[in-house]
Write a structure and sequence with these properties.
The structure is a homodimer. Chain A is an alpha+beta fold. Chain A is built from three helices and eight strands, in the order αββββαββαββ.
């Protein structure tokens, strides 16, 4: 990918407060939910904190296939879809690495709360649209 | 569902300019794309115009399982996911019914352009979140 294109993609990613997570449910239907990203490494890896008991977490445990969708509806409309696989990380080291104290509101037991886990998305391909520009790419 | 809840859901739907469409690709990965709804009947049926040659149209032809996701990120954050099935309608009557003259930009041959088709989504279940409120329902 051209350097300028990657810069444009990363700007979209960085400016999106929310990202839509896609999953596949037990009946084979696509599901979608908005979440806030916490940390990402370029467009390759994205981390999210969530409830171990959440519907989506259970879906990823039985089917890791997922997608992320970044969308800008104001100004120059643009969309970036990344497809890839989602891991559910529950080990103490990972949970500690990403923990923020403000999260006690969600996870009363703190960093060791069994209902707190980290989702790690690793991208395999992408589809970017912005005006007439369209990029399909593998990662 | 309570009347007040349905009113709240419909307000979210009506105020969303864009809706995220979910599909499942040939490798079983969920896909997502923002589109503009053109007509809807409550939360049961939604219609979209699109290209017959689009990736998503081909996905729905081989796997009609889909979802719609309506999301409000400003003010009172809310999300509504509807899962259901997507039909690809290419008959002359349906194409005429929804046609708008401004679409000649996209479909140069007009209403009979073979690359113009209508997607019809029929919902089967829903998942609504707004603050502490959460509704899971069948349709």
């Amino acid at each position: 990918m051209e350097k300028e294109d990657m810069k444009e993609l990363l700007e979209l990613v960085d400016n999106c407060k929310s990202v839509i997570l896609g999953s596949v449910d037990g009946q084979g239907y696509p599901n979608a939910k908005a979440m806030q990203k916490i940390v990402h490494e370029g467009i390759l890896c994205f981390y999210f904190s969530t409830f171990t008991s959440a519907i989506r977490t259970r879906q990823y445990l039985s089917n890791p296939k997922s997608c992320l969708y970044f969308f800008r509806s104001e100004g120059k409309v643009a969309g970036l879809m990344l497809t890839g696989d989602m891991e559910v990380l529950t080990d103490a080291g990972t949970k500690q690495k990403f923990w923020e104290d403000g999260w006690k509101v969600y996870y009363p037991l703190g960093v060791t709360d069994p209902d707190y886990c980290i989702l790690k998305f690793t991208a395999r391909s992408g589809n970017y649209n912005c005006g007439p520009k369209r990029l399909l790419f593998d990662i």
